[in-house]
TrEMBL record:
The keyword Transmembrane applies. It is a multi-pass membrane protein. One of its GO terms (cellular component) is plasma membrane. It comes from the Bacteria. This is Transport permease protein.
Amino acid sequence: MNVRITLATARRVLTQLGHDHRTVAMLLVVPCLLITLMWWVYDGGPVWGQIGPALLVVFPFIMMFLVTSIATLRERTSGTLERLLSMPTRKLDFLLGYALAFGVVAILQAVLASVLAITLLDLEVAGPVALLLTVAVLDALLGVALGLFVSAFAKTEFQVVQFMPALVIPQILLCGLLLPRADLPTVLEVISDVLPLSYAVDAMNEVQRVSEPSVLGDGTVVLAFTFSLLALGATTLRRRTG
């Protein structure tokens, strides 16, 4: 890994994003709008208090997965990745640069959505707000890592979208958003135990309900999945789409 090349890659990606106002708006504004819509649907009642914390990790996770995977795929299909890898840039430098760039966006996204939910949408949080923000950021970074990993296997943007029902939607259904994981059928509960989004939702629920939450275990699992996906992405990333 070359730190200089990694930072240069991150700077290039951030510069490109800065000129793409629609993508920036989608990344930063859409999650806030979706969370506000859910608050409106439930009229800020008890159900909102139950699902609100999970939404703070689910929506950023989805958005970062989609944008990161499609942006990385475009680098490969346009030939940019092949040109970069013909120079001193290595696959890990490329992926880490993308992870850093989209990580900055993920932090902004998670902070905006969390602050909105707490200040304007009356989401009650028993634990430290800083810890809630940390969990939201970790999950957004997980979406970045999963998007980078998936982009290595897709040949078109349509194929990227096809990974949604395979890798993302099952996690949403089993993470505890719709039903507490303990109430799931035994087989589904076992499956949910090996899905990273489940641990992000568990950590967020812990922060919301407990004044002195302990999220080290769940947070460590999410981080482990994130780094593992980045490492796998570095080994499977192709120079170009064949």
